[in-house]
């Protein structure tokens, strides 16, 4: 779809991607309204962040932690190879709900989010005077809720600096205030399930089609979570079915 300088459309083809959707018009009553160039640019920048940072970093960290934990990698590989063989026998591709049938894969993603979520915290504004653990936050003040201080608190998690996806097999409740990689309350990130789905699909195809050897690298946690050397790995296609 293309738009002329006056905001009109040369064609009204079915949108094929997000650019088409943003350029498409919306109808309000008898008047047609178009997104301004500024709003289009704002939307594109907002969508680049999860596309470039949050989910890709989640995938990278998962490979890092799996590389350092052979037992977890083996169990995750076996789980995904079982699903792949089933899909091959049925002649089917992955469906929307298949990732939910990979419980250990979900625990790996959950543990990765706990240890190295790229969103390290959120800013909030006090709408009234509030006291938290003896500290007064006056009305109108802004404060920073630091997720890592909660996720890596030994009073919330045993051995918090140890990658242990099995901890989530016994504690399946991830909707509590001690686990907030996607925020919480009314500002809960709407991409929560999409991020998990994308990470699940990536891990499924990666571990079932490839083997890899990771070079030594370090997780950097400030100002945002990232790999110091961008996680270099040597990849080889699997030969086993």
Q: TL;DR?
A:
The protein has 241 residues and is an alpha+beta fold. It contains seven helices and ten strands.
Descriptive account of the structure:
With 241 residues, this protein is α+β, with helices and mostly antiparallel strands. It is 41% helix and 15% strand. The chain has two domains: 1-35, no CATH class; 51-237, Orthogonal Bundle (Cytochrome p450). The chain has a two-stranded antiparallel sheet. It has a two-stranded antiparallel ribbon with strand order 3-6. Strands 4-5 form a two-stranded antiparallel sheet. Strand 8 and strand 9 form a beta hairpin. Helix 2 (37-67) packs across helix 7 (192-209) and helix 3 crosses helix 7. The longest helix has 31 residues, at 37-67. The protein is globular, with a radius of gyration of 22 Å.
Oligomer: single chain
Report strand %: 5-15%
Number of helical stretches of at least 4 residues:
7
Query: What is the domain total for the residues?
Result: 2
Task: Give the % helix.
Answer: 40-55%
Largest sheet composition: 2 strands, antiparallel
The name of the CATH architecture of the largest domain is Orthogonal Bundle
The termini sit apart by 44 Å
What is the structural class?
Answer: alpha+beta
Spell the H/E element sequence.
HEEHHHEEEEHHHEEEE
CATH topology of the largest domain: Cytochrome p450
- Report the strand count: 10
Give the averaged pLDDT, no decimals: 86
Strand order of the largest sheet: 1-2
Pfam families: p450 (PF00067)
GO molecular function: heme binding; iron ion binding; oxidoreductase activity, acting on paired donors, with incorporation or reduction of molecular oxygen, NAD(P)H as one donor, and incorporation of one atom of oxygen
Family: Belongs to the cytochrome P450 family.
Pathway: Secondary metabolite biosynthesis; terpenoid biosynthesis
């Amino acid at each position: 779809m293309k738009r002329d300088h006056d905001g009109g459309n040369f064609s009204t083809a079915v949108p094929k991607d997000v650019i088409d959707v943003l350029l498409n018009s919306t109808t309000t009553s008898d008047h047609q309204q178009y997104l301004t160039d500024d709003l289009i640019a704002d939307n594109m920048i907002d969508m680049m962040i999860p596309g470039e940072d949050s989910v890709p970093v989640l995938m990278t960290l998962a490979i890092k932690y799996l590389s350092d934990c052979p037992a977890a990698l083996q169990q995750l590989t076996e789980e995904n190879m079982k699903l792949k063989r089933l899909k091959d026998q049925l002649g089917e591709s992955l469906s929307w709900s298949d990732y939910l049938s990979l419980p250990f894969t979900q625990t790996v993603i959950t543990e990765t989010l706990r240890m190295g979520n790229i969103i390290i915290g959120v800013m909030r504004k006090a709408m009234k005077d509030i006291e938290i653990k003896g500290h007064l936050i006056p009305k109108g003040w802004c404060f920073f809720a630091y997720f890592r201080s909660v996720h890596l608190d030994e009073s919330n998690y045993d051995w918090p600096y140890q990658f242990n996806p099995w901890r989530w097999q016994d504690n399946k409740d991830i909707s509590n205030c001690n686990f907030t990689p996607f925020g919480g309350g009314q500002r809960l990130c709407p991409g929560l399930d999409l991020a998990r789905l994308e990470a699940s699909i990536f891990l499924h195809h990666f571990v079932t089609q490839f083997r890899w050897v990771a070079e030594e690298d370090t997780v950097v946690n400030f100002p945002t979570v990232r790999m110091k050397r961008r996680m270099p790995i040597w990849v080889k296609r699997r030969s086993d079915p």
